[in-house]
C-alpha cells in the first residue's frame, strides 16, 4: 500500500481538543466571556477525552499546556462569532437547536436506556412545530438528499423522537447537570467557531497580494523542491490474507488459509539491516525493492515514487528523503508502517510562481493559513476568556464508559453543511 498522503490543509488546524464551556447563558442575547473553572476542566478531562489522551496529558506537561492554549483559542473565536450574530443565521440556528437537543437526548438515554417516544408523542410534537423538520433539512443538505420516499418518513420520525426525548430531559432538569451543560456548550462553540473560520477562509484570498507570493518564494525556494526516490519497505503491519487459488466450495475438507503473521519489530529491523548492507555494497536497488519490498504500490516499479513535494509523505519518510543527495541511500527510516530504505534518484527545483500555477497555489494557501492564524491569535489576545491551567489530570478508569460528543482529537474546521 502506498504511503498515505499528508494533505496540505486548506484550513488552519488548531489541534483543539474540542472541549469547553463557552457561554454562561445560552439563551441570553448578550454574551459573557467563557470563564472555565478548575472543576469544569476536570470534567472535560475525565469525562470528554478518550483514555489514551487522558494518559498522554497526565504524563506530559506540554500536552496539558497545549490543551489549555487550544481551548482558549476555540472559545475566543466562538465568542467573536456569537458577538457578530452567527447564532442568528438561519441555517446555523436550526443546526444549533438540533445539536443541543441531541446532547439532551443522549443524556436522557444514558439514564434511561430503554426510553422511546411513541408515534402519538411524535405526531403531537410536529403539530406544535410544523416547520421544524423542513428547517432541519434546509440546514442539512446531505440529510435532505437522503430524505426521499420512505427514508424521509423514517428520518422525520427519528428527528421527532430526538425532540420529544430532549424535551423530557429538560423537564427533568438535565440541562442543569454540569456534564450535560458542558456538552451543550461545547457543541455550540464548535458550530459557531467553525462557521466563523469558514467565512474567514473564503475571504482570505483578498489578503494575499501578488507581491506577497513572489516574496515568499524568494525567501523559501527550497520549500518547493521535489524529489524522486526508490524505497524498500520491510513492514511491521499485519499482512493481508492470502487469496485462495482454488474455490473453497469445490474442495472438500479444505483447511482455511492462515493469515500471514507480521514480522516483529526486531525481525523487521534485522531484515532491513541486511537489505541495507546489500544495497550499499552495490546490488541493484530496483531489483532489491521488487523482490523484497512490502509496499505493493511501488515494488513492481522497483520501489519508485515519482516526484513529490513537501507534505506528501509521512513526516519521517519525507525528512529522510529530502536530506539525501542524488544517488545516496538513507539509513533505516522507521515509520508507522515499518522500516524503509530510501534512495534519492533525482531532485528538482520548482519553477517561479509566475510560471508554475501549482507552486503559486501552494504559496497562496500557505499565506492564507498564516493570515488566518494571525487573526485567531489576535482574537485570543484580546479575549477575556479564562481557561485555568491548574486542574486535576488524574485519568479516569479506562473501563468506565466515555461520554459521547467529542472526537478523539478535535479539529476546528470551517463548518460543513451535513446531517447532524
Q: How would you describe this structure to a colleague?
A:
This protein has 420 residues and is of the alpha+beta class. It is 49% helix and 7% strand. The protein folds into two domains: 12-222 and 351-420, no CATH class; 226-239 and 261-348, Chitinase A, domain 3 (Roll), CATH 3.10.50.40. A four-stranded antiparallel sheet has the order 2-1-4-3, with helices on both faces. A hairpin with a 2-residue loop joins strand 3 (333-335) and strand 4 (338-348). The longest helix is centred in the middle third of the chain and has 26 residues, at 178-203. The chain is globular and about 80 Å long.
Question: How would you summarize this macromolecular structure in one to three sentences?
Answer:
With 420 residues, this protein is an alpha+beta fold.
Count the E strands.
Answer: 4
**What low-confidence regions span 5 or more consecutive residues with pLDDT below 50?**
1-31, 242-251, 399-414, 416-420
Number of domains: 2
Helix count equals: 14
Compute the CA-based radius of gyration: 27 Å
Query: What's the order of the H and E elements?
Result: HHHHHHHHHHEHHEHEEH
Helix % is 40-55%
Distance between the termini: 33 Å
Overall pLDDT score: 81
Q: Report the principal-axis shape.
A: globular
Task: Output the structural class.
Answer: alpha+beta
List the quaternary state of the chains.
single chain
Strand order of the largest sheet: 2-1-4-3
Note the beta-strand portion.
5-15%
